[in-house]
Design brief:
By secondary structure, the chain is of the alpha/beta class. The chain has helices at residues 3-20, 23-32, 39-59, 62-94, 109-121, 144-149, 165-175, 191-201, 259-279, 285-288; strands at residues 97-100, 177-182, 210-212, 223-226, 238-242, 255-256.
Length: 295
């Protein structure tokens, strides 16, 4: 084989290796994203490949032209995939997280508690009778232990869902990250029943987004919708008090009286955020959702 043939073969092999060296990177970026890749490095590599392509064209070096054409395509692909992954990651990071309490927010626990108490003691208490107070404050001291014992596992199995709750939560879950956060430690035997209730009525909320806890200050969310204001004291996001008879006198927090009002609240928030994004690029979350003064 002549020296020219060997030279062409070696040059072609080297060009092919250089061109294909970025193919594994394309596959890796497709699987894992290109967060760790330097944008400056990609830009310089692409510029170099373009110069080598021009050199090959000027000198009629077919191997150089072919190799750098492949390099330009592969590096451009990696850069585009990196940009797409970064955009998707940024959008996920900017998605609001909404934590929603279950009892007296999604589920009408008071109605069931009153039904059981009235059946046991032949009374006719109504939600209006407990306005501004909890049930235990409205019944004789001798009945309180029995009333608390009514909160057994079966209590949470068939609670009624508040009107519009399912449809509004589904709408929110399409735009935000929605978590159900129940202080189930108040009634430890309720875990299984609450989980089954949520899976039956809200199957679109994944199990990974169901949180049973005691202290809700652990929640990393932008909003907390809850009927008990004590959970807002150390919560770092924005509170929304869901109206219930026992919190009628609470005035320290913004309030929603129904799930239709929840829908309207977040529709207004979405419109405000859209206007903010239209006037300036991506305002920080701290500007959209300021810290709540601690009480």
């Amino acid at each position: 084989m002549s020296d020219v043939s060997w030279s062409a073969l070696i040059g072609t092999a080297g060009a092919a290796c250089s061109a294909l060296s970025f193919l594994p990177q394309v596959l890796k970026v497709r699987r894992q994203g290109g967060r760790d890749l330097s944008t400056g490095m990609l830009a310089l590599l692409l510029a170099g490949a373009c110069f080598w392509f021009a050199y090959g064209m000027l000198n009629q070096a077919t191997a150089v032209v072919a190799a750098n054409t492949a390099v330009i395509i592969l590096v451009s692909t990696v850069a585009a995939m990196k940009a797409v992954h970064h955009s998707r990651s940024s959008n996920r990071e900017r998605r609001y997280r909404i934590a929603i309490d279950m009892d007296e927010v999604m589920a009408d626990a008071l109605a069931e508690h009153l039904r059981r108490y009235n059946a046991a003691y032949g009374t006719s208490l109504t939600p209006a009778d407990v306005r501004g107070r909890h049930l235990e404050e409205c019944i004789p001291p001798a009945h309180r232990a029995a009333a608390e014992a009514m909160l057994d596992a079966s209590f949470f199995e068939d609670l009624e869902v508040f009107p519009d709750c399912q449809s509004v939560v589904r709408e929110l879950a399409e735009r935000y990250e929605v978590f159900v956060a129940s202080a189930a430690m108040d009634v430890p035997c309720s875990f299984d029943a609450k989980y089954r209730w949520l899976r039956r009525h809200f199957p679109f909320i994944p199990p990974s987004h169901i949180v049973f806890c005691g202290d809700k200050s652990i929640l990393d969310a932008h909003y907390l919708i809850d009927d008990r204001s004590r959970h807002f004291a150390r919560f770092k996001g924005k509170p929304l008090l869901f109206s219930a008879p026992h919190n009628a006198a609470e005035t320290a927090y913004p309030r929603v009286a129904s799930w239709q009002e929840v829908r309207d609240h977040f529709a207004g928030r979405a419109a405000a955020n859209h206007a903010a994004h239209s006037s300036r690029m991506d305002p920080p979350l701290t500007e959209i959702i300021p810290d709540i003064p601690q009480t």
